[in-house]
Amino acid sequence: MAKPAPRDQGSTTSLQPRALLVEDNYLSASMLAVVLEDQGYHVDTVGTVREATEALKHHDFTHMIVDLMLPDGAGEDVVRAARQAGSKAKVIVVTGVNDPERLRKVVELGPQVMMKPISGEHLLRAMGGDKPDAA
Amino acid sequence: VTWIDSVLQWFAGGNRPYMTLFHCMDSDVLWIAITVALDLSVAVGYSLIALHWWQNQRGLRNADARRAMGRMRNIFIFCGLCGYVFIPIKMIWPAWRLYDMFMVVLAYQTWRYAWNARDLKVVYRELGRSGELEHELKEVRTESQVKSDFLNAISHDLRNPLHGMLLATEAAAAQLRRGRIDEAQAILEQSRLAAQQARTMLDNLMEAARGGWRTAIAHDVFDAVIEAGLIAAQHRPLAAQRGVTLRIDGPVALQVRTDRWRFNRIVGNLVQNAVKYTERGEIVVCLAPEREALLVSVDDSGPGIAPHHLERIFDEFYQVGNPERDGSKGAGLGLAMARRFAVQLGGDIEVESEAGAGTRFTLVLPGACGEPGPAARREDGDGEAGAPRPGLHHVTAAAGAAG
Fold first, then answer.
1. Which phi-psi region, left, alpha or beta, contains residue B13 (left: φ > 0; alpha: ψ -120 to 50)?
2. I need a labelling partner for B269 at 20 to 30 A (CA). Which of B15, B211, B238, B398 fits?
3. In whole angstroms, what is the distance from residue B323 CA to residue B334 CA?
4. pLDDT at residue B338, rounded to an integer
5. pTM assigned to the model
6. Any residues with CB less than 8 A from the CB of B29 and at least 6 apart, and which?
7. What SS3 state is found at A6?
8. CA–CA distance, B96 with B83 (Å, rounded to integer)
9. Chain B CB within 8 Å of residue A48 CB
10. Does A118 contact B at CB distance below 8 Å?
């Protein structure tokens, strides 16, 4: 039985991986947060580019999961902002965009691209499989 | 040289005296007759060509073809005018017989031209047709672009609820593993909403596939009030669930002539949209004839639409944000389709909205109320006329009572 992950938003230990989830679709975001938290991640969920940039200023993230179609801009901007902020987070772009040209450009930026719909299991594997729970 | 002199003199009528008034030789009857006949035949030939142009060139749809034909016509007129240069020459040297010989050639060529112009008709027609085909091709291209954009958009839009559902099953499983039944239940409920959203999208897609690109417009004659009543009856249960009243306003009966299927889709989508966004108050569907146009407005007391969203709400491919990001509010295709149908019927949909006060969509269908009344309606029995009224009245009454 896995030990329950600390769900208290305030108390993040340096050992706990922290993920920034940039997704404007409420259902996808909340469900993915549940799945990730279940695996011991501390999850910050934001829905816009502006909020994501703000979050990057205040916290260090080990992982970022970014949607491309955001209400106030593109997920690419978030990826660039993370690079600029010197973030070492592993970035995974999860999107429903099926424009190969755009996706190619995203890949050139560095992150791994995964197409929606994707299961939490696949995503966790892509995130590195380091399950803090299992430790 | 004497023989040249005699030839020149023969062309000019020999030793007959030249008559300035008629520009011919005294009593050279044979040659006068020949000249008149040739002049007439050339004139008739010219008229035929002119008539031919008038009939065919005007009808040409292709602008390039029309220009090309216009140029040919101008050249022809110029040549004709040049022919009359002979007249002053005759005054200096009245070589009447020589002139007639040229006229033979001219008459021959004119008639040959007039005769061949009949074949030109084929060319005209083909040129016109190529214009039409070009136009058609452009339309087909646009249509296929619309279709592929639409498919791209719907596949993009469908990914979101599917993605959410997939994650929701895992999230629910995770919560159940930890014994959190209530959380799991809440997640499953969310998942159900996402499934419904996906279903709405698929319904819209099916609808678009069935009728969105249907080109034939029917001219059904029916009572718009009855039709609107039927539509309202369909949506009243859901509205009632939210405590929203849905009513019809306007005349008791309003005979219109338009595509019934499209009318149903447009008004249905507008009402559906209003029901979706209105949490309290009422929705009023108001029908009114304005001169020959039919106005159908759907008023709601919903949250209204922010001005910067207003211009994008008919956007076909991307759902303009429902601000609270409520996934259950559908895919955002209904309005796009409603407008598309309205435009196909020669009309449009207008929208006015005030944040916090509500939104009014107005469908304008020009010419739909052009029929003067029941008498005209009977004349209009072209097989596509509306269903018998008494039966429908029953249905409306029943549906109204049920709602």
1. left
2. B398
3. 18
4. 85
5. 0.47
6. none
7. coil
8. 15
9. no
10. yes
